Amino acid sequence: MTAKNLYAYTLQPVNYEISEAEQRQAQLAIWRSTNKISTKSWIIMAVIAVLSIIGIVLLKNYSTIFCWVALVAVVAYILVRKFGLEWYVKRKMNEFPVQEIKGIRLGIQPHGIVMRQQMGAQQGVGAIGWKDIYEWYDTPDFMLVNFKVKGQQGAYVLPKRLNSKNFSFNTIRKHLIESVGPANKI
């Protein structure tokens, strides 16, 4: 490494404090990624809609009521799935408190993400190795890293505001791509 290159690892850990709003935003983004309407469902709805429109055009009198009901059912399903479930999930998320995260400092090292926390007179140190991370997401606002250590699952929501020379997201991405693979889509 030459003097022109920046040192890619943390010399001084950065404060890891994440607000309730940032945690809620990450939870909602993850939920949205799992609430996609499948291709099979779109095909079924398209067939029902086309058959309903054909039925409305070709059938006469009261027989078209079944076609109108099917068409309204398709539209109602899309609206409930797109807007109704999200409203419900937001309401349910607000019922449960988020964990306050304060007093933690994070750093990046060649072996993984290092966490330091003051516990009374002592300082606790923990590390999440790159091999312990099994999936990660990269969004415009945050990076989510899911890991499993000694049978315990955990996650870091890393807001993009933490990106600095002491905590380089480029270094994190490089290690995650090498050890886990490309980021999952949200």
Please provide a written account of the structure.
- With 186 residues, the protein is of the alpha+beta class.
- The protein folds into 2 domains: 14-18 and 101-179, PH-domain like (Roll); 33-95.
- The chain is 42% helix and 28% strand.
- It has 4 helices and 7 strands; from the N terminus they run E-H-H-H-E-E-E-E-E-E-H.
- The strands form 2 sheets. The protein has a 4-stranded antiparallel beta sheet with strand order 1-2-3-4.
- Helix 1 runs antiparallel to helix 3 (64-95) and helix 2 (39-58) runs antiparallel to helix 3 (64-95).
- It is elongated.
- Residues 1-5 have low confidence and may be disordered.
- It comes from Acinetobacter albensis.
- The chain crosses the membrane at residues 42-59, 65-84.
- This is YcxB family protein.
Radius of gyration: 24 Å
How far the N terminus sits from the C terminus, by CA atoms, comes to: 35 Å
Strand content: 25-35%
Helix fraction?
40-55%
Stated plainly, the CATH topology of the largest domain is called PH-domain like
Would you state the CATH class of the largest domain? Mainly Beta
Q: Report the principal-axis shape.
A: elongated
Query: What's the architecture of the largest domain, going by CATH?
Result: Roll
The order of strands across the largest sheet is 1-2-3-4
Compressed to H and E, one letter per element, the order equals EHHHEEEEEEH
Structural class: alpha+beta
Number of helices: 4
Q: How many structural domains in the coordinates? A: 2
Write down how many β-strands occur, each being a DSSP E stretch of 2 or more residues: 7
Please outline the major beta sheet.
4 strands, antiparallel
Spans of 5+ residues with little confidence (pLDDT < 50)?
1-5
Averaging pLDDT over every residue, what do you get?
86
Transmembrane segments: 42-59, 65-84
Protein name: YcxB family protein
Keywords: Membrane, Transmembrane, Transmembrane helix
